[in-house]
Design goal:
The protein is built from 9 helices and 6 strands, in the order H-H-H-E-E-E-E-H-H-H-H-E-E-H-H. The longest helix has about 70 residues. The protein starts with a helix and ends in a 6-residue tail after the last helix.
């Protein structure tokens, strides 16, 4: 029995550990995007707005259907009114009265208001969906930015650590030369200072990596300890012309499509304002049960009515219509303004991507040349034909070239991610 309890305890602990770190396996960028689309609070909130708009559509559709109400009243009179006659006092009612009334109301004509309200609700639902799409696009860009920042920080840490290891290896050579009398104490101290100077760079790079991981984990809504990234900064060309990118953006951007739907909603609101004083006609039916006084049976009664409502004069209608016209013009101006902003955003991302592409090619060549220069410098230093400072300079140039190449890759991937976001695509 005790063995069984111990086994269950261990098994439960394992389930908790592995269940809590469900994302501890290596995850790629696409995996992280899927996680963010499920867990990110901004997206969850946008989905709730879609659900709310969906219920508004059902609410507007229900306006076509009849409404049925049940009203009940109980009345107790402190003193029953009576009428005096030569023949005595005659009560004019009952001291206790109970009544139940079933009412049915069916709109027959509303001047188009029900149709317009239903159309407006459907447009609001579509608008909420477009806003969800835009939110998803923004969150995906944030995931990419954080993902690439982690890769950049990881690579920078590797480069900093490599530079430190290289400086330590050079220090060992200088120490051996110093012991044999081939290097001065100045060379030895200079090599030690270089190692000491590079150690803070490693610490800073490690801290930057931790910060980047925390930011990514926050966007994914998972613990940073569960992050085990799979991927690296690489160059993948995106075949797309600038003109095509702008055309796609004008058709696909969620915020632009949302504004276009807002324009339709403003048109419907203007129509609603214009039919504000139109007549309405409703059918009303009542069936009433009344139990007066001491009677055992309930009295029954029914009636039907056609209710016509026709507002002849509404002083605020003209101002109401003008207000809706102004709202429509504001949305139209906002659409034009957003189109200009989208076009500029697409151009900037496209040009940044092209510039980063050129930088990648240049920095890649720089690394090759810097590696060759450092190899030559180290060989010459061993032969005693150059000073240690020239070796350190060559090492610094190589480190800068590696950092520049990594930064160029990061800039290219970020520019490509910005371009995809700018044209309104969820995924590549």
């Amino acid at each position: 029995m005790k063995v069984k309890k111990v086994f269950l305890a261990v098994f439960s602990s394992l389930i908790f550990i592995f269940g809590y770190s469900g994302y501890s396996q290596a995850i790629s960028l696409n995996d992280e995007i899927d996680i963010a689309l499920k867990n990110n609070l901004q997206i969850i909130l946008a989905r709730e707005r879609v659900r709310q708009a969906e219920q508004k559509v059902k609410e507007a559709t229900a306006g076509y259907l009849p409404s049925i109400n049940l009203n009940g009243t109980y009345t107790h009179l402190g003193k029953v009114p009576s009428m005096s006659t030569p023949f005595g006092e005659f009560p004019m009612g009952e001291q206790d009265t109970t009544s139940l009334t079933f009412s049915l109301t069916q709109p027959l004509y509303t001047g188009g208001r029900l149709t317009l309200n239903s159309k407006q609700a459907k447009l609001n639902y579509l608008r909420a969906e477009k806003e969800l799409q835009q939110t998803q696009s923004e969150v995906i860009y944030q995931v990419k930015e954080s993902f690439y920042s982690v890769l950049l920080a990881t690579k920078n840490l590797e480069i900093a650590q490599r530079a430190l290891n290289q400086a330590k290896a050079h220090l060992e050579i200088v120490e051996s030369f110093y012991k044999s009398g081939r290097a001065s104490r100045f060379d030895l101290l200079r090599a030690k200072v270089e190692v000491a100077n590079l150690k803070p760079d490693v610490i800073k790079a490690r801290n930057n990596l931790s910060l980047a991981r925390e930011r990514l984990a926050g966007i994914l809504s998972i613990p940073s300890s569960s992050l085990d990234l799979e991927g690296e900064l690489e160059f993948k060309s995106l075949t797309l012309t600038l003109d095509d990118a702008i055309k796609i953006a004008f058709n696909s951007r969620g915020d632009l499509n949302s504004l276009k739907l807002q324009e339709e909603i403003a048109r419907v609101s203007l129509q609603v304002a214009k039919v504000r004083n139109f007549p309405s006609l409703s059918f009303v039916g009542n069936y009433q049960f009344t139990h007066p006084g001491e009677k055992e049976e309930w009295d029954k009664d029914w009636n039907i009515s056609l209710v016509l409502s026709f507002p002849f004069f509404d002083m605020g209608k003209r101002a109401f219509v003008r207000e809706r016209e102004s709202q429509l013009r504001q949305v139209q101006l906002a659409i034009k303004q957003l189109k200009d902003a989208i076009q500029l955003e697409v151009k900037k991302a496209f040009w940044d991507m092209e510039a980063a592409k050129e930088a990648i090619a240049a920095q890649k060549k720089n690394i090759q040349q810097a590696q060759e220069a450092l190899s030559i410098a180290e060989a010459r230093y061993r032969s005693g034909t150059i000073t240690q400072i020239e070796v350190l300079d060559a090492s610094l140039v190589l480190t800068r070239a590696r950092l520049g190449y990594t930064r160029a890759l990061y800039n290219y991937n970020m520019a490509k991610a910005a371009l995809i976001k700018a044209i309104g695509k969820i995924k590549e």
